[in-house]
Specification:
This protein is 44% helix and 15% strand. By secondary structure, the chain is α/β, with parallel strands linked by helices. Strands 1-2-3-4-5-6-7-8 form an 8-stranded parallel barrel, surrounded by 5 helices. Bound molecules: phosphoenolpyruvate.
């Protein structure tokens, strides 16, 4: 069985001292774990230096929540791929539904961001997901296919191999309404099949497809047990160390049973 990835997206939460306590507690409690579960913490940009310092003594990975679509230059307020790389950041979340909705990030912009990350050897965690009305209108498969075709399917095979996907139905994000294990499995299998058609079976099998959307300590085990769910992207439940550690425990339990 492949590894499971548990990634925490802190979004725009937590002050510096709470952030430090949170990451230290997660790092300390991750020391004796198997290397079958890869834990990625994505704090706000301003805490990345602190996080990468702590990471050096741990087995965690650190990710950014965003990346500029531009190179360095006259783009006030933007954080470039080169900057992130120079801070030992390993991953960047790209295409989160909140960035699509509140910051008008289109598929074209997201493709530029993907290319900037890959150029700087940062692994994208690329989010896709349908709106509630799209699911209710039975358009969810079509929407996901289009999102993939407009973005990651425009990458070369070699670049795509560095991409982790996160299926995050927008109606499940921060709502407490989780996709059922059947809904998650059905969509993940659909996505893997599309990857197989585009890049071949080996790359499809190796691609990590995470589930995101109100994943927590109570539902992580059943979600991660699905054959095509390779872990989770966790928002709210990553902000409390004990809850997040229980999700990591659930991932460990899934890897242990196979
Ligand atoms: C997210 O924002 O990526 C997410 C999955 O949030 P939550 O777990 O809070 O639904």
């Amino acid at each position: 069985m492949k590894n499971i990835i548990v990634a925490g997206n802190w979004k725009s939460n937590v002050n510096f001292s709470d952030a430090e306590d949170l990451i230290v507690e997660i790092a300390e409690n991750s020391e004796d774990r198997s290397n079958k579960v890869e834990v990625i913490i994505c704090p706000p940009f301003v805490y990345l230096e602190m996080a990468t310092d702590i990471q050096q003594e741990s087995n965690l990975f650190i990710g950014a929540q965003n990346i500029s679509s531009h190179e360095n230059g006259a783009y006030t307020g933007e954080i470039s791929g080169e900057m992130l790389k120079s801070m030992d950041v390993n991953f960047a979340i790209i295409g989160h539904s909140e960035r699509r909705k509140y910051f008008n990030e289109t598929d074209d912009i997201l493709l530029d961001k993907l290319n900037m990350a890959l150029k700087n050897h940062i692994n994208p965690i690329f989010c896709i997901g349908e709106l509630l009305e799209e699911r209710q209108a039975d358009k969810h498969f079509e929407v996901i296919k289009q999102q993939l075709e407009n973005t990651v399917f425009k990458l070369s095979k070699e670049d795509f191999e560095h991409v982790t996907l996160a299926y995050e139905p927008v109606w499940a994000i921060g709502t407490g309404v989780t996709a059922s294990k059947e809904q998650a499995q059905e969509m993940h299998a659909f996505i893997r099949n599309l990857i197989s058609e585009k890049f071949g079976e080996v790359i499809a099998d190796e691609c990590f497809i995470l589930y995101g959307g109100s994943c927590n300590a109570s539902n992580a085990y059943e979600l991660f047990s699905q054959p095509d769910v390779d872990g989770g992207l966790i928002g709210g439940a990553s902000l409390k160390a004990d809850e997040f550690l229980k999700i990591i425990d659930a991932a460990e339990a899934v890897t242990a049973k196979s």
